[in-house]
Each structure stands twice: as C-alpha cells, then as structure tokens.
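Protein chain data
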Amino acid sequence: MSTGLETQEAPKSAIAVAQTILDSRLDSIEQVLPRDQRGEAERYVRRAMLTFQGSDALQECTPLSLAVCVVKAAESGLAIDGKLAHAVAYNVNAGTKKQPRWEKRAQYQPDFKGLISIAKRSQRIVDVSAGIVCENDAFHHARTGPKSQLDHTYDAKKPRGPVVLAYAIVELDGGRWCYELMDFAELETVRRASKSKDGPAWTNYPNEMRKKAVIKRALKTYLDSPELVAAIVADDAAEFVRHPSEPDPLQSGDTAPATDLDGVAAKMLTDDEPADTPPEADTATPPADAKAPADDEKPAKAKAPKAKSKKPAKADKQQTLPEAPAEPDTRTDAEKFDDECPF
C-alpha cells in the first residue's frame, strides 16, 4: 500500500547528466582523440567533470553544452582542466528575437598555452613564444627574404609606457623561425569583436589576451595539424561575434582562413531563429534582368507581381512568428548530443 510518503529521486544535476551521456560514448570519443592519446577518453571525461564541479556558472549550463565541450576539447587533444583548456559559460538566446528564451551554455575555449602545446606536437613547430612591446622599449624587426630579425629589450626598473604592439615567434624545425606582429589598433579590433570584451579576461589579463591573439594569427599559417585546426576554429566560434561579411580580426591578409573546415569542433551550437520563420527571399528585389524589360514590355506589368508578393509575405510572417514556440524540442539530452556530435 502506498502511504504517499515515499521519497522521490532527486533530479540529476547538469554535470551528472553530461557525464552519463559521455560515459556511454567513450568508444566514440576515443575515435576523435589524436592517435598518440587513444585510450585516454575516460581520463578526459573525469578531468572535465572535476573542472565543471568547481564552477558555479558551469553547473548552471545545459548538460548538452557541457558534453559537447568535452568532445571538442578531446578532438584538439586537450583536457578541460582550467589551464590548457577552458569551458566558459555564456548566456544564449535559445528562442527568437521576438520571444527570447535565455539559457546558459558552456563553450570550449583553448588557452594560448594549450594552442602552443598542440602546435609543438607537430613535426614542423618546435616552440612558440610571444611578447608585448611598450612605448619605452627598444624594439627592432626586419624581414629580408627568408631571413627574419627581431630584437626586443627593456629596462625592468623603469616604466615601460603604454602597449604599442604584440609579437609571436614561431620556431620551426631545422633552426628556422619566423614572427608575426599585431599593432595596438589590431589588438583592440580583436578585443572589441570578443563576446567578453569587458569581461574578466580582457579586464584583468589584457596582455595575456593580446599574446593569445597574435599567437593565433601566427599559427593560422600552419594549419596542417587537424588538432590545431579544431582548437582554433572552436576558439574563434566561441569568442567572437562576427557577421559573415566581416573579416576575421585574427586573420592576416596573406593567410587563408580556416573557418570552413568539417569536424566535431567546427560544428558549433548556433543561436539562429527557428526554420519556420518565413524567409525574406520572397520579397527580395527582382533580379537585374527583370529591371530592364524589352521595348515592347510595360514596366507596370513587372511591378504588379512584386506588390502582390509583398502583402502575403508580411501576413505570413505575422502569423507564424507567434507559433515558433509551439513545437518544443522533444529530443532527450543524449539524442541532442548525437545530433551535435556525429562521430
């Protein structure tokens, strides 16, 4: 007989749900790890769970976003440990502009030390370092054909003045090396494009963020490493708010961007409006050939269909927008994870 006093099982935390999802897919996670780290999937998951448990903000994130973070970091060959790789909580609008529904999602972001660690695994790059040049420093650089020269000194006992630029040095095999520069204006462009331009990282550690910016630009020249590609793509997607028509603030003019690559890390969570929102293409301006009718055609005849197509489009938009939340996502967290990370 039921007494009505039975205790109900407490709902699992977001971290517990994420761990359940990942534990059931350890074999698949092994497949995205770099070859020299195969067999480490369980350690990657456990290390990430410990990191998540130490952050109040991450404990409020959706289980799906936490699980995807671990997979993306694993593809880069980094564990989310708060040192070489981080999971950062962002408020994301999971609804529409008209009917917002905000939720916290975790996004994987490698530290610049993590990017260097990945780069050093390749056979081409021996080491990567970065420096900050201030107004009172002694700095000289030059490129003569394949040869590079860079000299930077300063007196640690005297004020160095405001920041002027940042540089990164990439040491290659065979004793060769090259460098990349970003002046202060370019560094500020990167900061302004960041989702957290006034956040703790840029506010408390601005020079570390500047080093990361110039290191990323330098490493984009050496994108023959799948792990490095995955890390840079994931970091760009997590950090920057950029319209597709705008240039990449970290992309130098002589380097091809790496934002069109496939893989788990490149398939980021999106914040687009639902697909049932009516497209604006129906009311677009007719093609150029429609604007230049033949001599025996009347311009008025071409305008009539345009006027008729506008009215229904507006009516449709007004009718369907309120209906957007009427189709809730009934997938389980595990099913969502499988859709986001198709191994």
Q: What stands out?
A: Residues 280-326 form one domain. Residues 242-249, 252-305, 312-326 have pLDDT under 50 and may be disordered. The radius of gyration is 25 Å.
